[in-house]
Amino acid sequence: MDRQSWQAPVLEGKVVVLAGVGPGLGAQIARAAAAAGAAVMLGSRTAAYLDELAAELGDEGATVARRTCDVTSDADCRALVTGAVEELGAVDGVVCNAFAQSRAYGRTLEEADVDDWREAFDVNLFGSLRVVKAAVPALRARGGGAVVMVGSQIVRRVFPGRGPYAASKAALLTAAHVLARELGPYGIRVNTLVPGRMWGPALQRHLTNLAAERGTSFDQELARMESDVSLPRLTTDEECARVAVFLLSELAAGMTGQSLDVNAGETLQ
């Protein structure tokens, strides 16, 4: 299914703030939201990439603004939301996609320092909370809206050496449940997108590295990974982005405090 074949204006007239824009899922969510009719505020630490993506979306007719944003900074998160209100008129939806691994990646707790876990938590959990906290007044001013946290399948299927990332994403999932309760009275919905292994730039680099480490080929590693899912194939970052658009839209008006797994059936709930 190509990008054109599923487009519907389910976000027409809405303004979406996207924190954590990168060349993978973040960019695809921006493209999908714009294709669904939303004006989009892009936030990322990398100004050059923001300029590139904003130009692409603008060329396709989207209304777009951008701010450099480090989600570990309260001031940056407030500026991202304020910029959306000033330039685009409001905030109707927020997507928290910024993420970090850890200096302890690949090392067990026994091998790493506990302090090495803090980086993942500061971005994945506290960074998302900073963005949402900054956005609550703007969402309340609109009479409600939608927040989408981007989780990870690592909370369903954990591996040694991935503790900081897994634990921070698990905490984010629980935080989304808490926020659903806290913000529900304002008409603000909070749900979590849980992507599995996505076909995209990050996974392609991972498969290349695995092949080099194991003395295999890229195709062999891809086939091994695909054999572990139900369809069997890998989902794409674009497919995951469509689910984010669904959660932002009124199609999901009756959903809050929920998580949607998009993983081609690698894990079954």
Q: Give the number of helices.
A: 8
Number of strands: 9
Percent helix, as a range, is 40-55%
> What's the average pLDDT?
92
- Succession of helices and strands: EHEHEHEHEHEEHHEHE
Q: Give the overall shape, derived from the CA principal axes.
A: globular
The CATH superfamily of the largest domain is NAD(P)-binding Rossmann-like Domain
In the CATH hierarchy, what is the class of the largest domain?
Alpha Beta
CA radius of gyration is 18 Å
Q: CATH topology of the largest domain, what is it called? A: Rossmann fold
Tell me the distance between the termini.
Answer: 25 Å
> What composes the largest sheet?
7 strands, parallel
Strand order of the largest sheet: 3-2-1-4-5-6-9
Which structural category fits the helices and strands? Answer: alpha/beta
| Strand composition percent | 15-25%
As residue ranges, the low-confidence spans are none
Number of domains: 2
CATH architecture call of the largest domain: 3-Layer(aba) Sandwich
Fold and architecture overview:
With 269 residues, the protein is an alpha/beta fold. It folds into 2 domains: 10-197 and 236-262, NAD(P)-binding Rossmann-like Domain (Rossmann fold), CATH 3.40.50.720; 199-233, no CATH class. The chain has 8 helices and 9 strands. It has helices at 25-35, 47-59, 74-88, 118-141, 163-183, 201-214, 218-226, 237-248; strands at 15-19, 39-44, 64-68, 93-96, 145-150, 188-195, 198-199, 235-236, 259-262. The strands form 2 sheets. Strands 3-2-1-4-5-6-9 form a 7-stranded parallel sheet, sandwiched between helices. β5, α5 and β6 (188-195) form a beta-alpha-beta unit. The radius of gyration is 18 Å and the shape is globular. The mean pLDDT is 92.
